[in-house]
Q: What sequence folds into this?
């Protein structure tokens, strides 16, 4: 007897089968992942330092602004990464 998850995955694969990726596409996707992970980490390190400075000064408004900036940065870079990965996936291999 199949689980609900297995049945759902079968239905999903019937409606939109998983695309086969070439080795070059897989390498490019892995490269994108590592480059964006590095970008995000670099900016997080900088902004976390700024958060600590704001916290030491006791400037709650600046702290919240930097925290929002960090959150927005993560979302923006993640969306940019997914867009580029979709381009790679949809490219003719």
A:
């Amino acid at each position: 007897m199949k689980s609900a998850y297995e049945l759902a995955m079968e239905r999903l694969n019937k409606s939109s089968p998983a695309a086969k990726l070439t080795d070059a596409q897989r390498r490019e996707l892995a490269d994108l992942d590592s480059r964006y992970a590095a970008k995000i980490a670099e900016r997080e390190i900088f902004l976390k330092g700024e958060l600590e400075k704001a916290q030491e000064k006791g400037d709650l408004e600046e702290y919240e602004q930097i925290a929002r900036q960090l959150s927005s940065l993560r979302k923006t870079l993640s969306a940019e990464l997914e867009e580029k990965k979709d381009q790679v996936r949809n490219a003719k291999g």
